[in-house]
Amino acid sequence: MGFRLEGIIPAMLLPLLLTMVLFLGPLIQLSMDCPWDLVDGLKVAFDSHFWVLCLTDMRWLRNQVIAPLTEELVFRACMLPMLVPCTGLGPAIFTCPLFFGVAHFHHVIEQLRFRQGSTASIFLSAVFQFSYTAVFGAYTAFIFIRTGHLVGPVLCHSFCNYVGFPAVGAALEHPQRLLVVFFYLLGVVLFLLLLHPMTDPAFFGHLPICSLSRLTSATNSISSLSLCS
Question: Is the Transmembrane keyword given for this protein (predicted)?
Fold first, then answer.
C-alpha cells in the first residue's frame, strides 16, 4: 500500500519536482502576475501565523491535506493492489483512474441542487472534470507503481489542487504571452523527457506492488516488466 521507509526521501522529492516541471508554464505565469517578489514569498512561507491560518481553514485542509490523502489512499494504495493481480500493471494504471473520475461526479448533484448554471453547462463541466481527473489519476497511478510509495502521489495531488487547472486562456491573452506559452510548451517537453528517468525504480528500492504482477498471465507479466524496471 506504499507505506514504507526505504527510498522515502526520493519518493517525496522526485515526483513533486516532476509535477512542478509539468506546471512550469502556470508557475511562471503565476510568478509574473504575483505582486510579491521572492523575498516576500519566502517571508510568508516561513511565517508561522500564515500556517496557523491555513491549518485552521477547513477549505484549505480539505483541498491540501484531507482530499489528497484520502483519495490517493483509496484509489491508489487500496485499489491498485487489487487490480494488478487481475489486469497487470499497465491496464491497472488506466482502469483505476476511471473510478477516480466517476467519484467526482458528486459535484453534479451539488450544482444541480443549488442551480449553479444550466443543466447542459453543468454536465459539460462534469465531463471535462472527469477527463482531466482520469488523466491525473493515471499519472499518480504510474507514480505509485514506479515508486512503490504513497507519499509521492499525495504530494503531487496536493500541489495540483493548490495550483489548479492551467489557465490556458489567460496565458494566450497574457501581455507576455509568447514567453508564457514558451514555458508551457517547455514544461510539457521536459516532463515527457524526464518522466521515466525521474521515476526510475532504482531510486526507491524494492517495489512490493510489482510482485503482484507475477500473478497475471505471461503476456501481462512481460508488459509489466517495463514499469518495474
Answer: yes
Tens-place pLDDT, residues 124-136: 877 888 888 889 9
Verify whether residue 72 is a known catalytic residue: no
List the helix and strand counts (H, then E) for the chain: 15, 0
Exposure letters 63-86 (e unless 16+ CB within 10 A, then b): bbeeebbebbbebbbebbbebbee
Is the confidence at residue 183, as pLDDT, over 80? yes
Catalytic residue among 49, 72, 104, 206: 104
Phi, psi of 170 (to 5 degrees): -65, -35
Q: Are 144 and 152 in contact (CB under 8 A)?
A: yes
Phi-psi region of 118 (alpha: psi -120 to 50; beta: other; left: phi over 0): beta
- Strand, coil or helix: what is 118? coil
pLDDT tier at 99, thresholds 50, 70, 90: confident
Q: Which of the following is catalytic: 71, 72, 149, 157?
A: 71
Q: How far is CA 147 from CA 15, 25, 159, in A?
A: 9, 26, 18
pLDDT of 222: 46
Least Cα distance to 146 among 86, 76, 74, 82 occurs for 76
Look up 104 and say whether it is catalytic. Answer: yes
Contact (CB, 8 A) for 21 and 187? yes
CA distance 131 to 102: 10
The answer on pLDDT for 214 being more than 90 is no
DSSP state of 174: S
Instruction: Report the distance separating Cα 146 and Cα 11, nearest Å.
Output: 10
pLDDT digits (tens, 9 = 90+) for 80-97: 888 888 888 888 888 888
